[in-house]
Write a structure and sequence with these properties.
mainly alpha, 0% strand
């Protein structure tokens, strides 16, 4: 690589880190202010949900017992990455609203760091700077990333998956670690982190490696084995309570998905997602970025004739986004 290109890459990566630091300072302003009513169209979760995810860490710090009422139903929250980071953070800085919200901020911005790092292997460093900038100014991430949501823990684990697969996705140990991280995303991030698995498998299958079928099997096997071991390690005797709660919050709460009830139901939910729940109205930046991404995808880079010739990071981002969209809609 020519020296001037290496120099430019260093400059742009330093710029990306400066943007991240500036974003961290900006995101900390008004951290104890009530969430905006502007987002009320999506429900009241901004006001009600974050506290339950740091509930166990708060109790452990204040009372020396994470579950003073011996209520095992929330064990999935107790053993989330958000809860673990909250334990460490509260032990250093105490418990209050600001410190609780700092947990979400740390997780979200750490995720941005790993996404930026993942892009360095197969892209110019200016791409990392651009991605970090878009991340910081996103209204959606600014609003939800400053609260202790499980999704922020999922964001960090997803960033780590993106980094590992982008850098070492052609090596067997990198494939194994990628499958393991998907299991971690599902059990310690949020349940729909499982949607990263089909995205990972599709990225491997549509790559150019002669061992892609073997790598798919290895990734899937690593996911299953890690899922079983991690479930027993995290939940132990509370395994039944954990999966009972998961069942309640998915099928038990909402019943069979309307989008799978009929072919028309699938099409209806596919084209209406983001509009019926007013997501794109309340968060136009999400719609704008999705639209821009689709436009850029149609304008494949010079010399790239098909999806199989995209970089590993591009393939993973493309397929993971597609499967997450399909799963959530």
């Amino acid at each position: 690589m020519p020296r001037f290109i290496r120099t430019n890459n260093t400059i742009f990566f330093v710029l990306a880190m400066l943007i991240l630091v500036a974003g961290a300072i900006f995101w900390q302003q008004g951290l104890t202010i009530d969430p905006p009513m502007y987002f009320s169209g999506l429900g009241q979760s901004l006001s009600t949900d974050p506290a339950q995810y740091t509930y166990h860490a708060r109790n452990a710090q204040l009372f020396g017992d994470p579950t003073p009422f011996d209520y095992a139903r929330w064990t999935v929250y107790e053993h989330s990455l958000t809860s673990y980071i909250a334990h460490a953070w509260f032990s250093l800085f105490g418990v209050d609203t600001r410190q609780s919200n700092m947990v979400g901020l740390i997780l979200a911005l750490a995720g941005a760091f790993f996404f930026a790092l993942g892009l360095l292997r197969q892209h110019r460093a200016w791409t990392s700077a651009a991605v970090v900038f878009v991340f910081i100014i996103s209204v959606t991430l600014y609003t939800y990333g400053r609260l202790s949501y499980l999704e922020n823990g999922l964001l960090l684990i997803t960033g780590m998956l993106f980094w590992v697969y982008s850098w070492w996705g052609e090596r067997l140990w990198g494939i194994i670690l990628s499958g393991l991280l998907v299991a971690v995303a599902m059990l310690m991030g949020k349940l729909f982190g499982a949607l990263l698995l089909p995205g990972l498998l599709a990225a491997i299958l549509l790559g150019q490696s002669p061992n892609r079928i073997r790598h798919m099997l290895v990734a899937g096997g690593a996911f299953v084995i890690a899922l079983l071991l991690l479930a027993f390690a995290l939940y132990g005797t509370n395994l039944t309570a954990a999966f009972g709660y998961v069942g309640e919050q998915s099928y038990g709460l909402r019943g069979f998905p309307d989008g799978l009830s009929s072919p028309w139901g699938f099409v209806q939910h596919l084209i209406s997602y983001g509009f019926l729940n007013r997501l794109f109205y309340l968060n136009p930046d999400v719609f704008a970025m999705l639209f821009a991404s689709l436009v850029l995808l149609t304008l494949l880079p010079r010399g790239v004739r098909s999806v199989t010739e995209l970089t590993r990071s591009n393939r993973l981002a493309l397929f993971a986004s597609a499967f997450i969209f399909l799963g959530l809609m």
